Amino acid sequence: MEVRVPQLAEGVAAGTVVSVLVKEGDSVKKDQPLLELETNKAVASIASPAEGRVGRIAAKEGDEIPVGGLLLTLTSGTSGAAAAPAQKSAAPSSAVAAAPAASVPQTAVPAAAQTGAYQYVTQSGFPPPASPSLRRMAEDLGIDLGRVKGSEHGGRITAADVKAYIQYLQAVVFSGAAALGAAGKPGQAPAAAIDFSKFGPVTRKKLSKLRKTISEQMMASWTSTPRVTQFDEPAIDAVLTLRKKYAELYKKKGANLTLTPFILKAVVAALKKHPIFNSSMDEAAGEMVYKEYFHIGIAVDTEQGLIVPVIRNVDQKSLFDLSVELAQLAQKTRERKVGMDELQGASFTISNQGSIGGTFFTPIINKPEAAILGIGRGGPQPVVSGKKIIIENRMPVALSYDHRIADGGSAARFIVDFAQALNQFTEADLKLTADKTPAAHKTGKQRGKK
After folding, report:
1. Are residues 220 and 249 in the same domain?
2. Kindly report the CA angle at 113 between 112 and 118, in degrees rounded to 5?
3. Which of 47-56, 68-77, 170-179 has the least mean pLDDT?
4. Are residues 141 and 279 part of one domain?
5. How confident is the model at residue 103 (pLDDT cuts 50, 70, 90)?
6. Could you tell me the CATH number of the domain that includes residue 71?
7. Are 264 and 394 members of one domain?
8. What angle (nearest 5°) sits at the alpha carbon of residue 210, between those of residues 208 and 212?
9. 392-404 pLDDT, tens per residue?
10. What pairing do the DSSP bridges indicate for beta strands 27-28 and 33-38?
């Protein structure tokens, strides 16, 4: 039996081996962790699909293995015979535990991005190592095996590698990224090498996989999405008063009441009035997809880079529920323990820099979402009210949106309705039931309306 890299998640084409937890010859049980893979979003373990004995380990620490690439082989615990050969196992094993892929169309280039820049080089004159049947198949399909990076020992090419290369070529066509540079990134020319050390002392540090992925995704969003950013500074005195009044009570019940839960609920209220911002454009089908769920991504600043976990069904949760979930999810994200299923499926994203100290900024849309809301640090400001100057607490907000999907009028109305919702909370929205405890709190549906 061959254990291969499963389909990991939306936009994830490969994983880097962080650690190999077994040795060749070890006996393993079903669901026992075999390796740990780091993707662009999280670190996850690959479990054994069955009981048996570890045969050949094809991956080592630091290797980047594409989806479908071989990790190791298992032999039966009784017969010791290996399962079907590689040609019959080109697809990732369905028995390997993995998060389900998202249902939205993928516009990012999948299937081993390094494939686009790879070129087989040999000094012996021999062609890339592959089986005769695979060579015939590649010849029939018109595929240059010299452009396919083999995942087996010695760079030997498998059917899974050819499949990954074909998926890569399809993604290039359907995403409109025909102008690929030599680095394999859409619309980007080869980077020129610069010797910075000739100007003075330097320190070099290799980019992490997460940082590379962030770079590629931001570039893809920037170059493919015409965006506009709508700015405003809504008043927040009313919501600050409520937060101050209930913060200590929430703390005693194990919840940290920040402004973010209020912002989440206000965003959902605005999205219900303006569903265009809770949508995505299906470019392949030429259709708009309006989402009837409210799964909100929250950008979390970590030491490794920006990661966006998702809080699901925000409309169905109370301020207390959101306060608890936010703290737990942020901690898991910073420790890189967040699951792949918690990093996909967002319908809208919020990036809050208020705790750091930023004010206005232009957040980049988390494609394929239609918009993202940036939140800055709020504070007291002089405001003209009639013929008087008063001091009000104001909070900078910035809505970046896809101009193909929405127009300026819709964005301005969204911000107005968001600001109104932010100031319409009452004490009934914050009161807790008598059985509300940190260990077991009910959902909004279980409690009913207060």
Report:
1. no
2. 90
3. 170-179
4. no
5. very low
6. 2.40.50.100
7. yes
8. 70
9. 999 999 999 999 9
10. unpaired
């075999």: which residue's tokens?
34
Instruction: Report the alpha-carbon angle 223-228-232, nearest 5.
Output: 145
- The CATH number of the domain where 344 resides is what? 3.30.559.10
Considering the domain boundaries, does residue 196 fall inside one? Answer: no
Contact 340, 308 (CB under 8 A): no
Q: Residues, the chain, total?
A: 450
- Please state, in angstroms and rounded to a whole number, the distance separating the CA atoms of residues 450 and 398: 32
Residue keyed to tokens 């990732």: 92
Domain annotation covers residue 201: no
Q: Which residues are catalytic?
A: 403
Q: Identify the band that residue 116 occupies on the pLDDT scale cut at 50, 70 and 90.
A: low
Partners of 36 in beta bridges: 19, 45
Burial letters for 378-391: b for 16+ Cβ neighbours within 10 Å, e otherwise? beeeeeeeeeeeee
| Strand ranges across the sheet with 296-298 | 227-232, 397-402, 371-375, 348-352, 296-298, 310-311
275 in a structural domain: yes
Which residue matches tokens 């319409």? Answer: 424
Claim to verify: residue 8 and residue 79 sit in the same structural domain: yes
Res. 62: pLDDT tops 90: no
Do 277 and 211 reside in the same domain of the chain? no
pLDDT of residue 202: 87
For Cα atoms 69, 172, 16, give the angle at the middle one, nearest 5 degrees: 30
252 and 129, same structural domain?
Answer: no
How do residues 406-422 score in pLDDT, each as one tens digit? Answer: 999 999 999 999 999 99
pLDDT of residue 450: 39
**pTM score of the predicted model:** 0.61
Same structural domain, 386 and 401: yes
Average pLDDT, the chain: 80
DSSP letters for 243-312: HHHHHHHHHHTT----HHHHHHHHHHHHHHH-GGGGEEEETTTTEEEE-SS--EEE-EE-SS-EE--EE-
Total count of domains within the chain: 2
For residues 212 and 278, membership in a common domain is answered with no
Range of the domain at 357: 226-447
- Using a 10 angstrom Cβ sphere, with 0-12 exposed, 13-18 middle and 19 or more buried, the burial of residue 156 is middle
User: What is each CA distance from 372 to 221, 309, 378, 399, in whole angstroms?
Assistant: 12, 14, 18, 6
Kindly report, residue by residue over 268-300, the tens digit of the pLDDT.
999 999 999 999 998 888 899 999 999 999 999
